[in-house]
């Protein structure tokens, strides 16, 4: 595939998902998100013109990140800052309570 065609395809996906007032068929939205996440996170390596490995480990996390970014579209600066401060407060509370408990926590938060 020609690299310039690939870039144009990604631009179409990004516009469809993030451009304000863009009409998007809701049945297509998860597919567009998957394609964008796949393109952004999958890598392959070659040896002697043969594909050696294909790394797809980050696709699910990238899908979640794209969905959260889409949820932020249209929010005001104040709303985004309020969301960030709220998440930071939760993180600080969890970190502080884990420190007081004396042990390390296995909790993971994806914001």
How are the secondary structure elements laid out?
Elements: H1 3-18, H2 29-41, E1 43-47, E2 50-55, H3 59-72, H4 77-101
Antiparallel strand pairs: 1-2
Helix pairs in contact: 1-2, 2-3
- Cα-to-Cα separation, first versus last residue: 35 Å
Going by helix content, strand content and strand pairing, the class is mainly alpha
Helix content: 55-70%
Oligomer: single chain
Structure annotation, total helices: 4
Chain-averaged pLDDT: 78
- Write down the overall geometry: flat
Radius of gyration: 19 Å
Strand content is: 5-15%
Sheet with the most strands? 2 strands, antiparallel
Structure description:
It is a single chain. The protein is mainly α and 111 residues long. The protein has four helices and two strands. It has helices at residues 3-18, 29-41, 59-72, 77-101; strands at 43-47, 50-55. The chain has a two-stranded antiparallel sheet. Strand 1 and strand 2 form a beta hairpin. Helix 2 (29-41) packs across helix 3. The chain is flat.
